[in-house]
Amino acid sequence: MKTLNVHGVHIPLRSNEVSPEIWAALKSGRYEANEARRIPRAVRPGDRVLELGAGIGVITSIIASIEAVRVWSFEADPRTARLAQRVIDLNCDGNVVLSNGVLSAGPPAKVTFYRRPDFWMSSKFAEQGPYEKALELRSLDIDEFVVTHHINVVVMDVEGSELEILQRARLPGVERVFLELHDHLYGLAGVQEITRAMSRKGLIYDPRASSGPCVLYSLDDGKRQFDWEIAHAV
To answer: From the Swiss-Prot or TrEMBL record, what is one GO molecular function term (predicted)?
Structure first.
């Protein structure tokens, strides 16, 4: 087993445990590179973070490295969740709880999740393309989870499910939502609907930690002193 170092995260992994495309992205450092750069600007010391879509735990581990942060992370695919647990165990200091499951807006319900060879393409949408296996899961209510665990930040990369979640969930007490948009699944109209849903929650597009499809919505915290590094970030 080889241990890769990706964005400062140690990843114990065999090449045959992921697809060739994901292995190449890990080896080159392309894997979730945009998210990895933005997360330290979206998550602050002491935050209580709910992460939806852990993947293999790279972004989870970056979040958990921030001072006094607690993380509750969900990954729908049990096979991917096992890899993520391995990464979390190596990199995190007991401040992450990883669960195999999904959160949705509303009462628990049956959810079909479609596993694909490139796990970053796995999703709730059969029409997204060929899949290896359909997994039957039961969702948990995201709002109930947010209240029970006093979550103040949500991070999500859920391959299109963010549209429905953010339209329907209330997210009480959440101050920031950092997510990857998937406009290839719901178009620019869907992006607009997400922005409207965030606005109804009092959350505003925050360019200070946003780049391309990786965007942050925040409560208005007033003006900040000009930050040269953020202004000139690539």
So the answer is: rRNA (adenine-N6,N6-)-dimethyltransferase activity
* Residue whose token pair is 């930040």: 153
Domains and CATH numbers, the chain: 2-103+140-231 (3.40.50.150)
Partners of 51 in the beta sheet? 73, 155
Radius of gyration of the chain measured on its C-alpha atoms: 17
CA-to-CA separations, 46 to 35, 71, 88, 214, in angstroms, rounded: 20, 10, 19, 22
Tokens of 37: 């750069």
Cα distance between residue 132 and residue 119, in whole Å: 10
DSSP state of 7: T
For residues 181 and 213, give the distance between their C-alpha atoms in angstroms, rounded to a whole number. Answer: 5
pTM above 0.85, yes or no: yes
What are the two backbone dihedrals, phi and then psi, of residue 34, each rounded to the nearest 5 degrees? -65, -45
Convert the pLDDT of each residue in 25-56 to its tens digit: 999 999 999 999 999 999 999 999 999 999 99
